[in-house]
Amino acid sequence: MRGKVGPATMREVAERAGVALTTVSRAFSNPDKLSPDTLRRIADASAELQYTVNLSARSLRKRSSGMLLVLLPDIGNPFFSLVLKGIEEGAREGGRVLLIGDTGSDATLADAYAGQLDAGTVDGMILIDGRVPFPHGSPARARLMRAPVVALSEHVDDPSIPFVGIDNRAAGRDVAHLLADLGHRRLGHIAGPAANGLTTLREQGFAEGARERGCDLLGTATGDWSIGSGQAAAADILSWPHRPTAIFAANDEMAIGAVHALAAAGVSVPGELSVVGFDDIDFAAVGSPALTTIRQPRFAMGRAAVEAVTARIEGRTTAEPARILPFERVMRASTGPLGSGQTAAGRG
Amino acid sequence: MRGKVGPATMREVAERAGVALTTVSRAFSNPDKLSPDTLRRIADASAELQYTVNLSARSLRKRSSGMLLVLLPDIGNPFFSLVLKGIEEGAREGGRVLLIGDTGSDATLADAYAGQLDAGTVDGMILIDGRVPFPHGSPARARLMRAPVVALSEHVDDPSIPFVGIDNRAAGRDVAHLLADLGHRRLGHIAGPAANGLTTLREQGFAEGARERGCDLLGTATGDWSIGSGQAAAADILSWPHRPTAIFAANDEMAIGAVHALAAAGVSVPGELSVVGFDDIDFAAVGSPALTTIRQPRFAMGRAAVEAVTARIEGRTTAEPARILPFERVMRASTGPLGSGQTAAGRG
DNA sequence: TTGTACGCGTTATCAG
DNA sequence: CTGATAACGCGTACAA
C-alpha cells in the first residue's frame, strides 16, 4: 500500500502514455523521429507525472553529463561575477549547467574537483585560476589534456591548453604609456601575489612601458588583490624615500584600497598622486575619485570561454590556441597631469 | 590493439589489486571494515591507475549525488560572494560540491534547475532568490517540500521551508532609529524592486521605525539593487519638493550610487544629506565617505544554510523553522548629526 | 515509426 | 573480513 516516493521514471511515463520505454527516451533526445501523436501523448504523460530525466543515469550511459566545471580561486572576487554571468549564459544556451569550484588557490582541492572531469561527471572545464590540475606527467594530467579544457583570464603553464583573455602585458605597458603621456616620470606599482601569472605579466608590461618612455619605476609593493592589501601597499609606498607621482595597482580593488589609504593620509588623488587600477569592476566608476583603469571585457571573456570548450566538446575543431580579446583604457578622475595639484591644497 | 580511453573503473582496480570488485567499492565507502593489507593494495592500485570513482554511477545507485544546488538571482551581486564562500566551505566539509544556478529571477529557469533536485541529481537546495520553484499545488512542488530545501537571506512564500537570515524588518527599524538619534526628522528611502520580499520588509521596518520616533518619511524612490539605480534614485530625491536630510538605501550598491550622484550634484554627504546602506559589502568601508550601513553576517549565513540542509539530508531533525542571525549597525562617515554640515561648505 | 535486449559503473544484499 | 549478484534509470544497436 505504500506509494512510490521518488520522481517518475521513463518506464512510468511509457506505461501511462501506452508506448515503449525506448520511445519515451527518444522523445527526449530525437523528438523529430517520432509521430506527432506519440510525442503528444508522451508530453502529456510526462507533464502529469512531472517527469524529469534522471541526469545521473543519462550521464552514466552517455558518458557525459551536461555540466561544465569552472575552477576559480575566489568566488568572492567581483572580477569574476560578470565573467561567470557570461559563462552561465553561454552554458545555458548550450543546454549545459555550471558546477563551480572555488579552489581558494589550493592545489589539492582543485585536483579533487578536476577528478570529476576525469570521471566523466562533467563535460568540460574552464580554468580561471591559472593552474592545470594534476602533476605534470601524471596519467590524470595526460587524460585531462585530451579533454575539453580552456584557460580563462590567466594563462596556465601548459601551452596546449587554449587561452581566452586579454594581453595583460600589453595592458601593463599601456598603463605606463598613459601615465607617461600625462607627464609622470616617477612611477610606483602595486602588484598582485608573487606566484601569479597575471601579476608577472602586468608588472613586466608596466616596467617595459616605463622604460620605453624613460620613466623611473621606483619600486613595487606587493598585495594579494584585496582592498586591504591595497591600503597597506599605499602606506608602504608613502614611506619610500622617493615618492612616485603615479602608481599602477594591478587590480581595481587594490587601487580602491590605495586611494582610500591615500585620502586617509591626506594625500590628494590625483592632485599629488595619480592612481590607475585594472579590470573596471562596477565600483571603479563610482569611487571618489572615480578610477582610471583598464577595462577587461569580462562578460565577453566568459562567453568566449564557453564557446571554446563547447566547440571542443562537440568536436568542432575551432582549436585556436588562444583567443585574445581587446582591453580598453577608461580615463576617469583618479589620474591627472603631473603637477596639477601640487600647487594648491585642492580645488574645492 | 587500441588501448582503453576513459578513466579506470573499479573492476580494473580490483583486478590489479587482486581483489573482488565489491572490495574496492567498500574501500571507498567503509574503509574501516577492510584489512589494512587489502586496503593498502587497493590504495596502490588506485593510485597507479589514477582511479576516480564515477560519480554518475554512484549517484545513480545511491540516489544521491553529493551535490548541493544553490539558486540565486544574480551571481554578479557582491552580496552573494561571501555568502557563497560560506556555503562552499560548509559543503566541502560535508564532502559535497556546489551546483550554482543563476536564475536571473526567471521562474522557468529556476524550475529547470530545481528539476535536478527532483531527479535526485542533487541532494539538497538552497534558495537565495526568494521563490520556491514549481507552481503551488503541483506534484513537483509537493515532492520538493519533502526534500532538503532551505531559504537563505530572503523568505519564500511557503512557511514550511526553513529560513536562514536576519530580521530585515527589525533592521529597517534600526536604521530609522539610528537616523532619528542623529536628529534627523525628514527621511527618504531608496527601495529595492517592488515585488521583492526584502524590499517590503526593509521598507516596512523603516517606515515603522520612523513613525515610532515621530519622523516624516517623505517618500520612496525605487531602484533595482544596482549602483546605477541608486544614482537615478538620488537624482529623483533631489527633485522632491521637500528634501529629506537623511536617506536609507536598501542595499549598499544603491547607497554607493546615491552618494556618487549626490557628490556629482554638489550635495555634501553627510553635511547636507546623510546616507545609510545595507549589507556592508567590502566596498562600503572604502568609499568616500565610507558608508554607514547594516552588516549582515554573510559568511555565517552561508554556513548556517548548508548546516540546515545538511542536517535535513542526513536525517538529523534540526528542523528549526528559522534561524535568525543578528545584524549589526556599522557607523561610518556617510551619516552625521542633523545640521552638522549645513553651516559651512565643508570641514577641509 | 516503434519495440527488445543489453550494458554504463556503482552500491546493497546476502552468503561464505 | 570478503565475494557473487542484482538492481539503479537510461541510451542505443538491432530487429520488427
Automatic annotation (TrEMBL), chains A, B:
Molecular function GO terms recorded: DNA-binding transcription factor activity; transcription cis-regulatory region binding
Residues annotated as transmembrane: none
Keywords per UniProt: DNA-binding, Repressor, Transcription, Transcription regulation
Cross-referenced PROSITE patterns: HTH_CROC1, HTH_LACI_2
HTH cro/C1-type domain segment(s): 9-45
The protein, known as: LacI family transcriptional regulator
Domain HTH lacI-type: 8-62
Pfam families in the cross-refs: LacI, Peripla_BP_3
